[in-house]
C-alpha cells in the first residue's frame, strides 16, 4: 500500500471522501461534502477545500486539483453519460460546476434553482441492447430516502444542460430495511444493486449502538429483463491493443470504461502508435464517427499524450457534443497550444449553449487575463440558469479574480457577481438586419466601454482605431447614476461640456439626454443616457471612425460629469502613428498621485498673489463645474464660499485628496433595489415607517420618488463621494498650496480679514 495523498477532512463520516470514479479523460475524480476542511500537501503546493468540493487527481503527474466547491449535503452518486458529461446527485448536471474554486476558504454561490438532491447513492445509464427499447438511454438511480426504490428516468437534453424525467420504478419496497446504495452493470449486462439492508439509517437520528442495526444482512440484487438473453462481454484483460481500441466503438459505457483503464496500464508509445493508426482508419460514414474521434481524444489524455490537430478538428465540427468534449480537453492542453485562446474564443461564440458553458468553465482553468476577456464575451448571448451559474463561478474563481479585482477595466464583474441575475441587464440587445450586416465587416473593431461604479470614470480612457474603420461600441453602465458617451471633435470638449451644464438651468431638460445644441457640428457620435433611471443599461453604437487622424475626445455630458468622465479615441493611419499623435498632445501632464503624506507641513499663504494663482488652480482643476465659489460656478456639490469655516489647512486638503473621508448628508446617495428587481438611487428627502422619498436627480429637485418600505429588498448608503479622487494629479505642489489659499480666502483676498 502506498499513501498518495493526506490531509483530507475527517470531521464527518458520511460526508468523507467518496464517489471515486475515472473520468473519460483518465483523471481520478472524487469528492467530499459539507462539514469537511481539507489541506493536502502536493508537489505543486497545498490544495485546500472548505465544506465540500470535487477533487481531480492525475496519478502520472501526482497533481491534485480542487474545483466545484459550493454548499451541498449528502451528494452521493456519480457517472458520465455517452459524451462525457458529468452526472451526479448534488447537482444532477455536474458539468456546470467544474469552474475552479474561489480563493480559500470562499465557496461558489449556492446554485439556486438548479436540480440537485440528496438521498440517492448510485447512477447508471442503460446502454445494453437487450434491455427494453423504452429504457434505452435511460438514467437509473437508487434512492434510499425518503422512499426506498430503484428509479428509471429519461435523460433529456435542454439548451444549456440535461435534466431527468421520472418514468417509474424498477424496484420499490415498502420494507424500509431495503436501502439501495449503489448499482452497476456487470460484464454481461445484468444490473447489480447493492442493498445495505438495515432497519436503521443515519448517524445522527439513531445511536451507533442502537440494537436494531443489522451488521450482517447486506445483499446484492441482480436484475435482468424477463426472458432476456445476456450478452457475452468482449475480452479486455491482456488483449492486443488493436482489439481493445475497437472496443471503444461499442455503445456500452462500462466496456469502454474498463478498456480505457486497461490501456492506461500499457506502454504509452505502443498505445500512441496504435491509436493514431486506428484514428486514421475510422469510417467517416459511420453514424458514430465523431464519437469515435472523441474516444480517441480522451485516450490520448489517458496515456499522457496529445493530438492538437484532432482537438482543433473537433472544436469546429458539426456535432455540438463533440465540440463540448473538445473544450473540456482544452482545459488540460491549453498551455501547449499557441492558438488555445483563439479556440476558446471560438467556443465562447458557439451557437450551442452547452459548448458555451464548457468554454466559460475552461476559462477558469486557463487562468490568464486573455481568457478573462474571452470569458466576458459569454454574456454577449442569452444565458440559461446553468450557463449563468458556470459563467459567474468562473468569474469568481481565484484564477480570474487576480486579473479583475482592483482593475477598473473590469468594473462590471463585481456587479455581475453580486447578483447573477444582473448579467442579463448588460446583454447586448438584438440588432436589426442592417446591424448584422454592419457587424460582418472584416475590419470591424469592437470596443467595450463601461462606467466604473461610484467613480465617475470610463473603464477605457484611451482606445485606438484606424481612420475610416467600422466601429461597434458596446457601452454599459452599472453605476448608480445615468451616463452617456459622446464623441466630439478635437478641442471642443470643454465647450460642449459647458453647454451641457447650461442645460441644467432649463427644467425641461431634466429628463433629456443632455446632448447640447451643436450648430458647429462638433459632436460626431453619441449614445443616449443609460443607467438605473433609464430604459436600458447597455447601448450599442455603430459608426465609421473619422477619416482624419487625431485624438478625438469622448465624454459624458450629464452636467458636471464631463470634467473627469472623459477619454480619447486615437485615430491613426499609415502616415500618422500613435507616436506622432503623442508628440503633438497638449493635454495636461500627469504630475503625481498626491497623498496626504506628501504634505507633512502646510503653510497656507495669505498673499494676494497666491490667492489669485489659486483661482487659476481652481479653474484648472475644473472645481467650478460642480461647486460655487463667491456666487460663481455650478452648484451641484456644496458651496465652497465658506468652506474655511469648517476646514482649513490639512483638513481642507484631506477633503480634496480623499473626498470620501467626509460626505455632507444632503449629498450622500441612497441605493435601493426593490423586490421586483428595480434599482433606484438618489438623495434621501425624508422617510417614515411606511415609505421613503428619494430625489433621483439634483437637476430636478421637485421630482421625487416615493417607495413603500415593504417593496424594498435592499437599501444601502454609498460610502463613496460623488467627487472622484485624483483631481489634483496634474498640478504641482505650489499650485495645490495656491488652491488652498484661494479656498481659505473664500474666493478673494478681502475674505482673509474675517
Q: In what order do the strands lie side by side in the largest sheet? A: 18-24-23-20-21
Pairing-aware structural class of the strands and helices?
A: alpha+beta
How far is it from the N-terminal to the C-terminal residue, by CA? Answer: 89 Å
Count of separate DSSP helical elements: 18
Strand content: 15-25%
Number of strands: 31
Specify the helix fraction band. Answer: 10-25%
Mass-distribution shape: elongated
Unreliable stretches? 749-754
Mean pLDDT: 91
Q: Domains counted in the coordinates: how many?
A: 5
The main β sheet shows up as:
5 strands, mixed
Q: How large is the radius of gyration?
A: 33 Å
Task: List the defining traits of the structure above.
754 residues, Leucine-rich Repeat Variant, disordered C terminus, alpha+beta, 5-stranded antiparallel β-sheet, 5 domains, Immunoglobulin-like, 5-stranded mixed β-sheet, 24% helix, 18 helices
Give a structural overview.
The protein has 5 domains: 13-223; 241-423, Leucine-rich Repeat Variant; 433-583, Immunoglobulin-like (Sandwich); 596-664 and 723-753, Orthogonal Bundle (Cytochrome Bc1 Complex, Chain D, domain 2), CATH 1.10.760; 669-717, Roll (SH3 type barrels). The chain has 18 helices and 31 strands. A 5-stranded mixed beta sheet has the order 18-24-23-20-21, covered by helices on one side. It starts with 17 loop residues before the first strand and ends in a 10-residue tail after the last helix.
